[in-house]
Design goal:
The protein is built from ten helices and no strands. By secondary structure, it is mainly alpha-helical. The protein has two domains: 203 residues, no CATH class; 30 residues, no CATH class. It is globular, with a radius of gyration of 27 Å.
Length: 251
């Protein structure tokens, strides 16, 4: 039974990874409409009046840094890669942290101010960027303090938030297939794309209960302490005799 569950988990992980890769490749392939910008394309439709200056820079920075963060996140979250290549994991982790904090988050916040789906979606995207950066900061602090279990949890949250770009495209594709075209759909999808995966993660992750007070480690016998301190043979013999005499008196 355990082997079947393990196989199912691996299958789900593999399919999820393939889905992320497929959506990322399809998104990057659509970049052809952005160089030069085609304002008849879906995403740029209606953005020509403000597509200049800081918005233009934020747009292209987000285009470049977003797929990189997803691909790096897939690699860094892999336990096999982390155990087999710990040095590369640390190096790529630093690159990921810099990419998210310096590029993805600032550009995401700025683009959120111009969300085409309205203010509700803009607030969602802005909070998403802020929370993603917060997860990276706490994950980095946990790694520095060698609290690796906390580090994994924070970076798992970060990866889930980054994957919202994939989730919202999947939701949009389903809406196209089902013929959903309501004004409320895009604002709702903007929140669902990251709140639902994050809630599922928090509700399903294992929780370890801590037992009240940690047990104290008993002090070793004095003669063992002297042995570890590199004492002389005479002192070792005296310490052992002293310990034997103490035991005889107690008897």
């Amino acid at each position: 039974m355990q082997s079947i569950i393990s196989m199912l988990q691996r299958t789900v992980v593999l399919l999820t990874g393939l889905l992320i890769l497929k959506v990322t490749v399809a998104t990057v392939w659509g970049y052809r409409s952005y160089f030069p910008p085609d304002f008849e394309a879906d995403f740029l439709l209606g953005r020509e009046p403000y597509f200049f200056g800081s918005y233009r820079w934020a747009f292209y920075v987000h285009l470049a840094s977003g797929p990189v963060s997803l691909l790096l996140g897939m690699l860094l979250i892999s336990r096999r890669f982390r155990m087999r290549f710990p040095d590369r994991h640390r190096i790529l982790g630093r690159i990921q942290a810099a990419n998210v904090l310096l590029l993805v988050v600032p550009s995401g916040v700025w683009l959120a101010c111009f969300a085409s789906a309205g203010a509700i979606a803009g607030v969602s995207f802005g909070l998403l960027a802020v929370f993603t950066g917060t997860c990276v900061v706490f994950g980095w602090r946990s790694a520095v303090s060698r609290q690796f279990a906390d580090h994994q949890r924070w970076m798992s949250r970060c990866f889930l938030l980054l994957c919202s770009a994939v989730v919202i495209r999947v939701i949009g594709g389903l809406a196209t297939i089902l013929g959903v075209d309501a004004p409320w759909f895009n604002p709702v999808a903007s929140w669902v794309s990251w709140l639902v995966p994050l809630a599922v993660f928090e509700l399903t992750r294992p929780r370890h209960r801590r037992s009240g007070r940690p047990q104290a480690t008993p002090d070793p016998p004095r003669w063992r302490t002297l042995l570890h301190q590199g004492s002389s043979p005479a002192m070792e013999i005296a310490a052992r005799r002293s310990a034997a005499g103490t035991s005889a008196k107690r008897g």
